[in-house]
Structure formats: structure tokens, C-alpha cells
Specification:
Layout: H1 2-14, H2 45-51, H3 66-91, H4 107-115, E1 121-123, H5 130-135, H6 139-146, H7 180-193, E2 200-205, H8 212-223, E3 228-234, E4 237-238, E5 241-242, H9 254-257, E6 263-267, H10 271-286, E7 292-297, H11 315-322, H12 326-336, H13 342-365
Parallel strand pairs: 1-2, 2-3, 3-7, 6-7
Antiparallel strand pairs: 4-5
Helix pairs in contact: 3-4, 3-12, 3-13, 4-10, 6-13, 7-8
This protein binds thiamine diphosphate and magnesium ion.
Protein name: Pyruvate dehydrogenase E1 component subunit alpha
Biased composition (Low complexity): 7-28, 42-61
Cofactor: thiamine diphosphate
Length: 389
């Protein structure tokens, strides 16, 4: 019953999906083959008609209470300001190694946090600073991890791609593309086996959907009706390779249908849509109906990692997405519907600025791990807790 409904809903929203495809990258912007157009989330048709470019949407009647909009604003601003600072610090070589920023994708996390409950488990790939920030991990512990300091949430031994925080049920931070997908299914299996009533939300990038492990995990999760929400954050590119260059199947959510998994596309530049889709999937998971596959159509404003100048896309494409920025949309809704004043929002911004600054000072002033840490949290450790006879 529920399955049929979701598929029908997907088809309906699918029909509006390609309303604002930007121009493809010009051949001078690419050093390889001309890139086809990326898949875009649906645009606000009225704004598009007026300006030629879709704008942030402001609902006539906000669907959610003021507290929810303010929570979204604060969480998303924290993610963005933290990431902007991390980008600056990388430029100054305070942060080294890999560093993948989440700027532009904030609604993918904020809308899910509001739709889920505290006991639910989270897992994602290496673009992983924002998820724990929104779940409540201290910015200090994440920044210190980026600095490879002993006070970091992974004791300075993981770095940007391996943020973990058991306290908030954030189970990483994984560098192997698609590697976390079977892990997400396994976590959901444990929740079901232990009858906790909790679920696992498992994020991945669009590059991960071509990995064999995903298909094996989807099949098993569906067969065993595991309480898992698989989310692909389709930001149009895996490093510099657009989705269209990877496969004939560019509507990624349809891949779930091969396993009879309820699957739907979501305009993830819109935090309300993210919340609603995740809430529906969670209800199904908790009712014992098993997994859902959500395709979050989103965009990253920065390159793949700090070493990517993003020459494979046009300025126009980037500007198009920026013009419907999810934080701006929430800000606009808050102000238009008098949920808070400009001054109230400025006070939130100021608080976040202070938190981010404090995290930098904390990281700067923390020590590096000592050499004996090399022998801890690995199999050689005498009392390593995960091996049992
Ligand atoms: C199995 C595997 N192959 C290749 C890589 C190298 N690699 C790192 S990130 C990446 C692109 C993944 O893109 P996507 O899944 O779309 O996530 P995004 O970076 O867009 O969030 C690749 C190919 C890897 N880490 N793991
Ligand atoms: Mg991607």
C-alpha cells in the first residue's frame, strides 16, 4: 500500500523535475569531453518565469512551527560557517590532507535531523563534518579532528574523512566510496534484532550508486525489511564526473525500484521537502515495512575537495543553485512570516561566529597525539574490545 503511494508520488514530482536545466559546461571549461547537463531539483516556476532563474521558495503558509524554522536556520548556519572557516584554515595549511566541504548541501542534513529521533543511527561518506555538527557534536571536537589533534572526536587519528561520535549516534565518516552502504544495512539489522525501535539513516554520494556493494546491501535490506533509510546526496558530480557520464540511468531513485524498495526523488535545496520525505520513510521503517531509497537532489558550491578548482562546470550553473540557497529560503520564510526579526537572526549569526572561533582556538591550543597512540584502537591493543573468542 505505502509502496504504491510513494512510487506514484515520485512520478508526479518527477514530471516537474527538468524545468530549469542550466547550460552545459563550454568546451573551454573542460579538458576532457563536453559535460552533459546535471540533473536539477525542481525550481519555483513563478520565480523562474520572472527572472529566468529559480529563486529560494517561501511558502505562503509555513508548514512547520517557528521553532523548527529557527532550529533549521541555526543548524544550517553553523554547518556553513564552520565549513567556510575550515576552507580558510586549509588555505593556511592549518588543516592538511583531504577536506571535503558540505557548503550548499546543508538542507540534506537539517531536514532529516528534525524528522528523526535521538536513538536513530547516522552514517555517511567522507563529506562528513555537517552531519555530526547538526546532531550536537561539539564544533571543538570536529575542528580539533581536522587539525589532527588529540582532543579531536577520533583522537586526531581520523582527520576530516573519519569523524565519529558515539554520543550522538554518528557512526562515521567513511572514505571508500559506497563502503558505508552495507555498514548502514548492518546497523539497521542490529536495531531490528535488538528490537530498539530505532532506524539507521545511511547517506552516500551519487558516485556510490554504481558500486556493487550497494546493490547487494539493497537486496538484503529489502528482503529482511531492515529499518534503514538510504539517501543518495545527488550533487550532480562524483569528483569531476557528472552523473550523465556515468550511466544511462540518471534518475538515481529508480535504482531502488529494482529491489521493490519504495523510492523517491526529493528537492533537497528545500528543507521542508527533506523533512517530509525522511518522516515518511521513518514511519515505514518503524512500522516494520523496511527500507526506503531517497534521492536528494542537491549541489555543492565548492569543488569536490580542497584541491579541485571545479573547472568542469560553469559559473552560471553554480549561480543558478546559489539563487535557491536553502539557508536563504529559510531566512526568507522566517522574516516574511514574522517568526523572528533581522536582529534575532543577527544574534544567532553572532553566536555561531563565536562557536566557530572558539573551535579554532580550541584546536590550535590542543596537543597532537603522542606516539603511543599508534598502538591503541588497533588489533595489537591487549584489551581491544571488538575481538572475542
Ligand atoms: C572505492 C573507491 N573508489 C574511488 C575512490 C576515490 N574517490 C573518492 S571520492 C570519489 C567521488 C565520489 O563522489 P560522490 O559519491 O558523488 O560523492 P560527493 O563527493 O559528490 O559527495 C572518488 C571516485 C574511493 N574513495 N573509493
Ligand atoms: Mg556527488
Amino acid at each position: 500500500m505505502a509502496e504504491t503511494k510513494v512510487k506514484a508520488a515520485s512520478k508526479a514530482s518527477n514530471s516537474t523535475k527538468k524545468s530549469s536545466t542550466p547550460k552545459a559546461a563550454s568546451s573551454k571549461d573542460t579538458n576532457t569531453v563536453k559535460q552533459p547537463d546535471p540533473v536539477l531539483p525542481p525550481a519555483n516556476a513563478e520565480a523562474e518565469a520572472a527572472t529566468g532563474a529559480p529563486k529560494a521558495t517561501t511558502p505562503a503558509n509555513p508548514e512547520f512551527p517557528k521553532e523548527t524554522y529557527l532550529q533549521w536556520y541555526e543548524q544550517m548556519q553553523l554547518m556553513r560557517k564552520f565549513e567556510e572557516k575550515a576552507g580558510q584554515l586549509y588555505g593556511q595549511q592549518k588543516i592538511k590532507g583531504f577536506c571535503h566541504l558540505y557548503i550548499g548541501q546543508e538542507a540534506c542534513v537539517a531536514g532529516a535531523v528534525s524528522a528523526l529521533t535521538k536513538g536513530d543511527k547516522w552514517i555517511t561518506a567522507y563529506r562528513d563534518h555537517a552531519h555530526p555538527l547538526a546532531l550536537g557534536t561539539s564544533p571543538n571536537a570536529i575542528m580539533a579532528e581536522l587539525f589532527a589533534k588529540a582532543t579531536g572526536c577520533s583522537k586526531g587519528k581520523g582527520g576530516s574523512m573519519h569523524i565519529f561520535d558515539k554520543e550522538v549516534n554518528f557512526i562515521g565518516g567513511h572514505g571508500i566510496v559506497g563502503g558505508q552502504v552495507p555498514l548502514g544495512a548492518g546497523i539497521a539489522f542490529a536495531e531490528k534484532y535488538n528490537k530498539t525501535g530505532n532506524l539507521c539513516i545511511c547517506y552516500m554520494g551519487d558516485g556510490a550508486v554504481r558500486q556493487g556493494a550497494l546493490h547487494e546491501a539493497f537486496n538484503m535490506a529489502m528482503l529482511w525489511k531492515l529499518p534503514v533509510i538510504f539517501v543518495v546526496e545527488n550533487n550532480g558530480y562524483a569528483m569531476g564526473t557528472s552523473v550523465q557520464r556515468t550511466s544511462n540511468v540518471t534518475e538515481l531513485y529508480t535504482l531502488g525500484e529494482g529491489y521493490d524498495m519504495p523510492s523517491e526523488p526529493v528537492n533537497a535545496m528545500n528543507v521542508e521537502d527533506v523533512h517530509n520525505a525522511v518522516a515518511r520513510a521513518a514511519e515505514r521503517a518503524r512500522a516494520g515495512e523496511g527500507p526506503t531509497f531517497l534521492e536528494f537532489k542537491t549541489y555543492r558550491y565548492k569543488g569536490h575537495s580542497m584541491s579541485d578548482p571545479a573547472k568542469y562546470r560553469t559559473k552560471e550553473e553554480l549561480e543558478d543553485y546559489r539563487s535557491r540557497d536553502s539557508i536563504e529560503a529559510v531566512r526568507h520564510t522566517i522574516l516574511t512570516h514574522n517568526m523572528a526579526t533581522e536582529e534575532d537572526l543577527a544574534a544567532i549569526d553572532e553566536k555561531i561566529k563565536g562557536q566557530v572561533q572558539e573551535s579554532v582556538e580550541f584546536a590550535e591550543n590542543s596537543p597532537y597525539p603522542t606516539a603511543d597512540e599508534l598502538y591503541k584502537d588497533v588489533y595489537v591493543q591487549q584489551d581491544y574490545p571488538y575481538i572475542r573468542d
